[in-house]
Amino acid sequence: MPRLKFSGSRLFVLDTNVLLHDPTSIFRFAEHNVYLPMVVLEELDNGKKGMSEVARNARQVSRYFDQLMESASEDEINKGLPLGNSPYLPKEERTDGLLFFQTSEIDASNFPTGLATSKVDNTIVSIAHTLQRDNKDKLVTLISKDINLRIKAKILGVHAEDYFNDQVLDDLESLFTGQSVLPNDFWESHDKEMKSWKEEGRTFYRISGPLVKHWVVNQFVYMEDGSEFSAIVRETNGDEATIELAKDHSSQANDVWGVTARNIEQSFALNLLMDPEIDFVTLQGPAGTGKTLLALAAALEQTIESKLYNEIIVTRVTVPVGEDIGFLPGTEEEKMNPWMGAFTDNLEVLSPSQSNDDWGRQATQDILQKWLKVRSLNFMRGRTFINKFVIIDEAQNLTPKQMKTLITRAGPGTKVVCLGNVAQIDTPYLTETSSGISYVVDHFKNWKYGGHIKLIRGERSRLADFASENL
């Protein structure tokens, strides 16, 4: 390989999985340059066939490349294509970096000892190694979602990093929880100009003070001093906010389809799920915290009893925990039913009959067939759901792009509920901070028609709680 010289202080060598994960990644390195080995283009070509998300991303990357070199000469390609020329990006996102392609064969003598030259990953590492050797005044960084490739690169002295641009935040602990505990002296510093009133049986307060400016719309605030005070923030304006007393769903008088909240987070979740003014709800928490049960109870209550929605739509990404069991026979619903065991389990709890007789099981099946429809994620493009209660289960396994595809299916009168546990991600290359559910929690944080609650305490059984904490 000839000794290539690059402008700028950094050069990023991209692995194929980065492009397949985020097709716009070539534009995400600001003023720095991007380099693509020829084997990456070969892998993109091999992965472009089919209707999967990966195949669509491979085709999108190729379209970006085609547009960037549409009128470029061979000399201009060798000197680097300006990444700021893409019409796909808004003006404020245009960059000054250049895109370089590998235009000559790599010198096999540059391979570090012990690496098989026939393996694509080793070829990428060797190219990064050669670029760093020939450009000692610049930092060459290999970007890959593959942990083993990054380890191999670092062992050989090549700087390597994960792709961070798609991460919502640096630390999962800073993700919005949807609730905040008020200090015991809260009223002493916030009740000087407080106003209260009632509308249609609902109690509101207008409060001002130093803590108010940190609140967001539809966040819950509560006291732990035994007063059982809890409220939802309805409006914020600087250091002034309007809050509404939250309904106590732990009381049998406020049960939802026979379900009462077992802790304060579940009560907050039911407040959001039962509020017709809130179109989008996210529930995130460990296994056994009641996410599915609460969502399904609220869906049945508002669909069958209140007639607010005319159907319940349930979907989830079909990523197996263990070995794949292969193709499933039958219709779309029949194929999806094995993936929906969580909902059938909870329907048995929520069915009118608690007995194990044939009538009770048949009642569960009637509810399942008449009101609850199971849909596959693969057939969601182009659909519009009108007056539906849509539940997206296992949302932690969705990419941000897949999440956008699903949420934009919502038509007038539709409520979308996303359930997920970021500690149980099964999709390759997704992390807690780049998961689709983390993405929407952060982006919907201050929207007045959206709400989020992080459920903390498990309520499944003492065995499940002990396993979650100790295994």
Automatic annotation (TrEMBL):
<dbReference type="InterPro" id="IPR003714">
    <property type="entry name" value="PhoH"/>
</dbReference>
<keyword id="KW-0547">Nucleotide-binding</keyword>
<dbReference type="InterPro" id="IPR051451">
    <property type="entry name" value="PhoH2-like"/>
</dbReference>
<dbReference type="GO" id="GO:0005829">
    <property type="term" value="C:cytosol"/>
</dbReference>
<keyword id="KW-0067">ATP-binding</keyword>
<protein>
    <submittedName>
        <fullName>PhoH family protein</fullName>
    </submittedName>
</protein>
<dbReference type="Pfam" id="PF13638">
    <property type="entry name" value="PIN_4"/>
</dbReference>
<dbReference type="InterPro" id="IPR027417">
    <property type="entry name" value="P-loop_NTPase"/>
</dbReference>
<dbReference type="Pfam" id="PF02562">
    <property type="entry name" value="PhoH"/>
</dbReference>
<dbReference type="InterPro" id="IPR002716">
    <property type="entry name" value="PIN_dom"/>
</dbReference>
<dbReference type="GO" id="GO:0005524">
    <property type="term" value="F:ATP binding"/>
</dbReference>
<feature type="domain" description="PIN">
    <location>
        <begin position="10"/>
        <end position="151"/>
    </location>
</feature>
<comment type="similarity">
    <text>Belongs to the PhoH family.</text>
</comment>
